[in-house]
Amino acid sequence: MRQLEVKVKKKSYKRIVLAYSGGLDTSVILKWLQNEYNAEVITYTADLGQKDEIQPAKKRAVKLGCKKIVLDDVKEEFVSKFVFPMLRANPMYEEQYLLGTAIARPLISQKLIETAKKYKADAIAHGSTGKGNDQIRFELSAYAINPKIKIIAPWREWNLNSRTKLLNYAKQNKIDFPSSKKNEPPYSMDANLLHISYEGKILEDPWKSPPENMWTWVNSVQKAPNKPTDIIIEFQKGDPIKINSKKYSPATILEKLNNLGAKNGVGRIDIVENRYIGMKSRGCYETPGGTIILMARRALEGITVDKELLHMKQELMPKYAKLIYNGYWWSPERNALQGLINESQNKVSGHVKLRLIKGNVIILGRKSENSIYNADLSTFEDDMGEYNQKDAEGFIKLNALRLKSLAKK
């Protein structure tokens, strides 16, 4: 069989660190880097909670001749230093997306840079396409940490721009891949402890409904139990620390909330979002635990955060979410916003009682020693001297001056 022609401007690299998932794309990239650059390739695989993908990735890298394979369990670091700080902002890109893929990229980039330094590599490489957000997220993060790093993005260099070409290249180079890859599900996936995402192919038509067998995590509303699940989550300075009075590590608490949410049909969304690079993209997401944390924290903030501070935080949320979505986790502006967000959470400690039922997260109650909710002020019963209702008359008249003036015109 005639070898596929792959045109690329060659550079001299002795050692390259590749962000490696073990799938078809990054396996082809691994071999391509070996062939085109005649370099030693070190694979780096971050264990972010994607479960069954880690060991198969290692086996495939060994078969492809890798002498150094790095498998890194970063689940606790991922949740405690990236997911939880992000969730303190209640961030939703374009009011819907909880940033499950976006928040993983700055951590992976950091680890790629650290691995390159440790093994004295000349460059790092990733498998993101030239149309997507991830190439931007990986590279902005990498340059923010090490401005001198060399980055190889094969999808912007080679001509293997179709699945057929990738499969042919794999066959010609004796890359072992499951036969199911020839008839794989008609969408691409990304998974970690916070979410699973699906996009591409059948989902590229926004009118077509996603097939039910696409969803691999969260039960449909129809299949979710009829009996509700009631839980109490305890927060400390904005972060969940206990479920039903039992304390867990950050990664474990997210995993347990994932299981509870998935069982009860919580956390599925189907959206069309605006990519940073300038095109619209349809994505389907499963984010059960993150959805529960979002709803619970909002309930607790309602009784613990001052009105104007809460409103300011809500106004800043879209900006903060956009920074993470676009790849600016390591930017000074995100860091500055994080400081304000962390400050806003100093009093967000207490308990939230929730009910999970048929895709819904229902708030049943909230309490906190830091609560600034005043029942004596809010009551519709006797005011007990806390508030003079006649004072409202002057307040209304002052605020009506502008409106009355406009009406007279």
Major β-sheet annotation: 5 strands, parallel
Note the quaternary state here.
Answer: single chain
Helix content: 25-40%
Q: Regarding CATH, which class of the largest domain? A: Alpha Beta
What is the name of the CATH architecture of the largest domain? Answer: Alpha-Beta Complex
The succession of helices and strands, N to C, reads: EHEHEHHEHEHEEEEEHEEHHHEEHH
Question: Mind explaining what this structure looks like?
Answer:
This protein folds into two domains: about 15-85 and about 100-190, 3-Layer(aba) Sandwich (Rossmann fold), CATH 3.40.50.620; about 200-365, Argininosuccinate synthetase, chain A, domain 2 (Alpha-Beta Complex), CATH 3.90.1260.10. It is built from twelve helices and 14 strands. The mean pLDDT is about 90. By secondary structure, it is α/β, with parallel strands linked by helices. The chain is elongated and about 85 Å long. It is about 40% helix and about 20% strand. The strands form three sheets. A five-stranded parallel sheet has the order 3-2-1-4-5, sandwiched between helices.
Structure in a nutshell:
With 409 residues, this protein is an alpha/beta fold.
What's the SSE blueprint?
Blueprint: E1 15-19, H1 24-37, E2 40-47, H2 54-63, E3 69-73, H3 75-87, H4 105-118, E4 123-125, H5 134-145, E5 150-152, H6 163-172, E6 188-191, E7 196-199, E8 229-236, E9 239-243, E10 246-247, H7 250-263, E11 268-274, E12 280-286, H8 288-304, H9 307-326, H10 332-344, E13 350-357, E14 360-367, H11 375-378, H12 391-408
Parallel strand pairs: 1-2, 1-4, 2-3, 4-5
Antiparallel strand pairs: 6-7, 7-12, 8-9, 8-13, 9-10, 11-12, 13-14
Helix pairs in contact: 1-6, 3-7, 4-5, 7-8, 9-10
